[in-house]
Amino acid sequence: MDELDLLAELRRDTPRISPAATTAARARLIEAMETPERPTRQVGPVAWRAGLVAALAAAIVTGTVVTEGDGPGPGRGPGFTGMLSAAQPAVAAVADRARTVADREPADSLDPTAWAYVETLQRESQSHEMSTLSDWYTLDGLHYAGVDDSGRITVFNGEPLRDVPSQAFLLDAPNDAEGMARHVYAEVDRIIQGERDHTIRGEIGVDTSRGRDVAAFTLVKQVLLSFYVTPRQQAALYGALAYIPGVTVIDDVADAAGRHGQAFGITDSQSVRSEIIIDSRTYRYLGTRAIFTEDWTEPSHPPGIAPDSDPAHPLRFPKGTVIELTAKMASGIVSGPGEREEGGESP
């Protein structure tokens, strides 16, 4: 069984990637084999499957790239130089309320070398079993840690310029909505260029195969889910969503922990709506969901392209099928890897 056979086995409940992505992914896998191996992180079924599929899907490059030179870190170069879309009032209104609440709290002063702890709950899309993931990161993205197969905390080095996304994305990020939107699109453009140059390594997955705007939304979604984000940074990220065409506000969505709130959502070309769920009262981030908004059937394959599944039984997803459900259960600044109790954000 080669890498693509393994993908076929794992992706039964995930929309297929295109033939172009398959070809590019194989090249990336070969390149990755030449990269020194890092210690294994213990992750649950949803995270492992989503990470693999997203890394392969991210091999497609779409959208318009607007970049200017090489920056010193993720999202920290000269930045996005194009025109932003007009802010969408409904999304901006929620972000403004979140900012009002965040401004009532003391100003944040964070050491880039500080460690943050993040605990997430993820539902496996086939069995619906829940997996709890624990991760630690330094705020500069240079070090991170996880629980290995033997239950020990393993620390290894990050590479913020290659890892996508990285906690370093939030270093020196603007706290205003428009500035954060430019910061987000600058990082997406860097990712797209990095995919072309094979200098990007997708650890969590920012899928660029469905357009630049969906990629911008996905970047915001993954940063909120995976890293420590202060209330002001949360509000700025919500505000950035207002500048992404197609983002809407959805009422009464539940995360993997059963907590209800409202959500920001964007629907891609395969009728999958990706959602960022927040508390309707406190505006704290809760989790994510992805759901089919229409019935979807796997398209036929071009001649000469081997399908990932049985052509006689294409993948089908009825409207309303949930293919991703997560919850961020805890997040905060801690004294080091393995620590979980020292202050910070706690949704």
TrEMBL record:
Region (Disordered), start-end ranges: 297-317
Top-level taxonomic group: Bacteria
Listed InterPro entries: CU044_5270-like
Protein name per Swiss-Prot or TrEMBL: CU044_5270 family protein
Organism the protein comes from: Planotetraspora kaengkrachanensis
